[in-house]
Specification:
about 110 residues; mainly alpha; flat
């Protein structure tokens, strides 16, 4: 349960950080905006969570869990919030992300 909470926190911080960076990328002077600064700060927070995840999980397992959950949430963010296309390539990527979690959890 502790792993799930830490993973949710670091993934959430990353996704919200990506949201702000995406907003900043569409603005004039994007790197100098508050949106970019907020996104960059949110990117640093997951380091704390990574520290605790690495205490009880191998780097490979932690990385796959984080990467897959980030892929799923970022795909949803891009598709539903920013109205980006979701095609066959994106569907295949999401399917492979889920498959990687299943493989890693089976071997853990």
């Amino acid at each position: 349960m502790k792993t799930v909470l830490i993973l949710a926190a670091i993934t959430g911080a990353t996704v919200v950080g990506d949201y702000f960076i995406k907003l900043a990328s569409g603005r004039e002077g994007g790197l100098a905006t508050l949106a970019f600064l907020a996104g960059a700060l949110l990117y640093g927070l997951p380091a704390i969570g990574w520290f605790f995840l690495m205490r009880s999980h191998s780097l490979a397992v932690a990385a796959v869990l984080y990467s897959a959950s980030t892929i799923l949430l970022m795909t949803a963010l891009g598709t539903f919030v920013f109205r980006e296309a979701f095609g066959l390539r994106e569907a295949a990527g999401v399917a492979l992300a889920v498959a990687s979690v299943l493989v890693m959890m089976r071997s853990a």
